[in-house]
Amino acid sequence: MPTFLVTSKMSPELRARVQASVQGRRAAPGARLKARSISLLRVSLVTVVVVLVWTAVALRARAVERLEAERRLLIERVERESLGLTERDRRIIDRVTPWLEAASGRYPGDSVDEALRSNGALAATLARPSVYLRAPLASLAGAESLSRAASASFNDALVLCLIEPPATRSEKALLSRAKSAYARGERARAAAHVERLSDALLGLPLLSREWLARVHAAEDSFALERLEDHFSRAPLAGAKRAAKAELLLYAIDEPGEEAGPTELDGERPHEVRVGLVDLNADKLLLRLRRKVDPSWISNSARAEFASGIDSCGLALDVHAAVSANSVHG
Hints:
By secondary structure, this protein is of the alpha/beta class. The chain has one domain (85-323). The protein is built from 14 helices and 6 strands. Strands 1-6-5-4-2-3 form a 6-stranded mixed β-sheet, sandwiched between helices.
């Protein structure tokens, strides 16, 4: 509708606003902005979207690149730590498990290979690289319980006194060896070639093809970091030495006598099965079953070192059995 309020001298934008006001409606938004302003706004919006998309793509590419770099480093570490391990080495757990299972069944009687009876043969045999486990009889029922029991096993006084037996069976001599084993002192280094089975159980699976497959399959940095942390904390050095073991030495503790007292360190009268296996020849060298009883130990020593003293005494029983012309049945 024409109106005298609008003149030809007004700007188009002002004319549109006046006309809209007279007609009782609001001016269209497009009428308020110049065409150039609208074009700039559209270009700006497109530019922002493009920048955001490009940034997201770039960040994603950097994350993927960083993930792959971390993956390569971990793979290189696994491959480097695996150098020198043969297929036979990797199967150390499979090779010792049947012997442990057999040792945990019905006890068939004592046995000593004649090759151990010659002068110095036992000492020379025990000097070979070995893997050791001391565990309760009940813990050998399955792989999971074996792993838990192995984690508590260490080179105790039995190992030290087998390798370096004391000259006498006096309480003082046995106590000295027990303290050395507990303290991991200079004398305990004589057993440095005896590795814990636990190290093999914990470390060797991380040097397997299955572990490498898990590294390859990790989908993000969080998953890869967890694998790397697990790998860094594993006892790989001990595991690799255990994999090269030529002997399996084990001590299996049978349940204690209910009527006997239990010492502060858990020791009480019970039977112990001791075995020595040549893993290279897949041959049993020694199997003995002897009773340990801390009741003879003085109160002052028994309170803290009953188990260690009994273990050292057990090692002397092994030496005596090997030196004898015959063994108990």
